[in-house]
Amino acid sequence: MTRFLAITGTSFLFAAVLGAGALAQSAGGGPPVLANKLAPASGGSAKIIVSSDTFGYGRALSDKYTQNGENVSPSLNWRKGPPGTQSYVVLTEDAGVDRHDPVVHWVVYDIPSTMTRLRENIPATETKLDSGAMQGLNVRKTAGYLGPKPPAGQTHPYHFEVFALNTRLNLDPAKADRETVVNAMKGHVVAEGELVTNYTGK
11-15 long-range contacts, Cβ below 8 Å, gap at least 24? Predict the structure, then answer.
């Protein structure tokens, strides 16, 4: 997250970066999330500032957005990608797990380049959204958002990642799991950013 700091000059965002580091440490050395290991398009990638109306950077996620509550997707906002952006991908990943890859809770791809927001409570039953964006498969191999539910007493960091691409993926949503989407994104990322929250299991 030190790269994120490079595009900010405010103490608020500096505190957010420090909070992200604390969250990463609390994960116990879990797997790296996609934003930290995906190779960018030729020429490198810029940064996108990501925010939410429903939770703040480094702050705990409300039960409403978890499997212990209403299990609805939170809202997500981001700054517009650089010239050449053709679509966006949103991934939500739990890095506080002892496994090779993070647990994926949400995959949304082919978000139009004119959009910079996902509203709250997008139905998981909607594979294709009104905007033309597509919801891929979460860790349970079902479409749409799946809220966190870590083991009781464990605090996990959840990374809401936004990627600007110089292409559209045009994937079959029935097969668009994390691996398929990640492979299709390789070499096409022109900007990326993330918003990190945490949740403690009950």
Answer: 15/58
